[in-house]
Amino acid sequence: MKLIQVQDYQEMSQKAAEIVIEKIKENPQIQLGLATGGTPEGFYNRLIADHKENHTSYKQVKSFNLDEYIGLSSTNPNSYHYYMADTFFNHIDINQEDTNLPNGTAENIQEECSRYDEMIDKMGGIDLQILGIGQNGHIGFNEPGTSFASKTQVVDLAQSTIEANARYFDSIDEVPTQAVTMGIASIMKSKEIVLLVSGVAKAKALKQLIDGELTEEFPASILKKHHNVTIIADQEALSEYASKSDSTLRG
Ligand code: PGA
């Protein structure tokens, strides 16, 4: 894993956007894996600003999101379908039919999980996956204890995840308790991964990712086994981790 240390949230967002814009220039047909949550909002804002100023085009780009809540339709403002349209897709020139998220309202959710993995495989896989990390080390919605071999699946959200995400809902009782998420093995198939980490709330998780052991109790630890991971972390996120210079971390 490569670690890029930046000052703050703005710089993290800028750096991530620069990497992705460069990749789109190299390969206009890139297949992007995308994430939701608070962390990537600034990154999407910068991609939108660049699209408006420099006309970087997403016409040939395809996207695949990590996860969706079970039971929320795409018109629900708390769904990740809605988040992606509102935060990113509606502001760029990507074709709606080239954007993919798991369907959290599918009648047969098991079938939906297999469909999602098979579709990604059939289309040639994800070139670059943007990831966040949960305070408990989750990636996607793969909570501690998830098998490293997991494919796209239905998961029960950890209480800490429900609490962390309650800020987007009117009350904690409205936070769905289940989600459909790309599995750990599905995420690990991405050719390249960029992990964004910002804020003091993530400092313990980042330290554990860098210094801790490989264990299913800390899902993000699997990233040590991927050959092309770049972590972009700001100073608050790095506050529990001592090193001062950018580095390649031991796998
Ligand atoms: P956040 O979520 O960006 O809202 O902190 C990240 C995650 O839980 O993976």
Instruction: Specify the structural class.
Output: alpha/beta
Question: Which descriptor suits the 3D outline?
Answer: globular
CATH topology: Rossmann fold
Strand order of the largest sheet: 5-3-2-6-9-10-1-11
Number of domains: 1
- Supply the CATH class: Alpha Beta
Contiguous low-pLDDT stretches (5 residues minimum) are: none
Number of strands: 11
CATH architecture classification: 3-Layer(aba) Sandwich
- The number of helical runs is 7
Order of helices and strands: EHEHEEHEHEEHEHEHEE
Q: Which percent range fits the helix content?
A: 25-40%
- Report, as a whole number of angstroms, the end-to-end distance: 7 Å
Ions, cofactors and other bound molecules: 2-phosphoglycolic acid
Describe the fold and architecture:
Catalyzes the reversible isomerization-deamination of glucosamine 6-phosphate (GlcN6P) to form fructose 6-phosphate (Fru6P) and ammonium ion. This is Glucosamine-6-phosphate deaminase. Pathway: Amino-sugar metabolism; N-acetylneuraminate degradation; D-fructose 6-phosphate from N-acetylneuraminate: step 5/5. The protein has seven helices and eleven strands. The protein is of the alpha/beta class and about 250 residues long. It has a single domain (about 1-245), classed as 3-Layer(aba) Sandwich (Rossmann fold). It has an eight-stranded mixed sheet, with helices on one face. It has a three-stranded antiparallel sheet with strand order 4-8-7, with helices on one face. Strand 9, helix 7 (about 205-210) and strand 10 (about 230-235) form a beta-alpha-beta unit. It is globular and about 50 Å long. The model has no long low-confidence stretch (mean pLDDT about 95). Bound molecules: 2-phosphoglycolic acid (PGA). 2-phosphoglycolic acid binds near residues 39, 132, 134 and 138.
